[in-house]
Amino acid sequence: MSNCINEYCGEYGGITDGVRSMIRGKNRLEEYFTWDKLVKILLDKVNRIEQPPEPTDVDYHLQRPTGRMFDDCCNEFWNTVPYVVKGLCRREILFAIDHMNDIVRKELLRMISWLVGSERGFDFSLGKNYKFLDKFIPEEMWNRLMATYRMGSYAQMWESLEQCMALFREVSAETARRLGYPYPVYDENVSGYVELQKTKYGQ
Predict the structure, then answer these.
(1) Which residue, among 170, 157, 8, has the nearest Cα to 96 in the 3D structure?
(2) How far apart are CA 154 and CA 88, in angstroms?
(3) Which of 26, 28, 84, 90: CA 20 to 30 A from 182?
């Protein structure tokens, strides 16, 4: 949570005793309150703020996906998996890791967050970068997710990718069932491709 101190013109950010403090210019206060609803007023020496806003994380609550959003997530995940495979087959591990982290894992985490929302409601936040996710999913799922971060070798990358695929398959199918959305067909063709390429190049 950031803290806004209305005292000087200009802008300054500093960390004191583990708290990030921001000094905002007088002309930008109202605008700032709309930028970050987690802001907390610590000091208003000139009493310019008649009704200090209550900090809230409402802007960061889980968002219930539309059918299109759900399908787009599945499409992005499964259509990026072959790029990870390409990097592994060509012995270009950094290329593979980049696509794994930037897209495949991003969509997996998004889908898991939707599953959590479908079970518990969409009126709360999992925190920046899903930092509270472990509190809302089964330990077995958490351990499997953590295992996907082992990417120090080609063998580990293949294992991590397959674990991501298995997790996404299970989570997206259950999320689709809970939200009443059709499960798209991207999975079948891509999974067959991955199996074939691993057989040829995965040793």
Answers:
(1) 157
(2) 7
(3) 84
